[in-house]
Write a structure and sequence with these properties.
By secondary structure, the protein is α+β, with helices and mostly antiparallel strands. Helix content is about 35%, strand content about 45%. Strand 4 (about 95-105) and strand 5 form a beta hairpin. The longest helix has about 35 residues, at about 1-40.
Length: about 140
């Protein structure tokens, strides 16, 4: 019985360690996006995003698509932007993940919510799609 308990504890511990390391890997990619955009580091964005990623949003009650390449090209090296981002949640299974990020933009008095779809290809997590919405600051 003691050996069975030890085996179950070992398997549980290994599963938790593996899950934490995957969450850490996903978090690194998300922070490359958050900090790369805020600090004017387009190379960090290229590391975070798949080369074919797009952004999706709704404007005037219509679906709009924005090229990921255009998004990255708008981030100028060294030009900081006044945005504060944080990861709200991550959910993953196998090689697929979804993350929710909140971006506070004081100058625009907006809070953006980003939903990221990520895939793990060749051992590397990449953001493949981003959808976003925003709301005005609560007064």
């Amino acid at each position: 019985m003691k050996n069975l308990f030890t085996l179950i504890l070992l398997i549980t511990t290994c599963s938790i360690v593996n899950a934490q390391s995957e969450i850490e890997k996903i978090n690194k990619v998300l922070h490359d996006y958050i900090e790369g955009t805020a600090n004017g580091e387009p190379d960090r964005l290229r590391n975070a995003f798949d080369e074919n990623f797009n952004l999706y949003f709704v404007a005037n009650d219509s679906l709009k698509t924005w090229s990921g390449k255009q998004y990255i090209n708008n981030v100028k090296p060294g030009r900081k932007s006044n945005r504060i981002g944080k990861v709200i949640s991550i959910d993953y299974e196998g090689d697929a993940a979804i993350a929710r990020i909140e971006i506070l933009m004081p100058a625009r008095k907006r809070i953006y919510t980003d939903y990221m779809l990520l895939l793990k290809v060749s051992g590397q997590w990449k953001i493949i799609h981003k959808s976003f919405t925003f709301k005005k600051y609560p007064e």
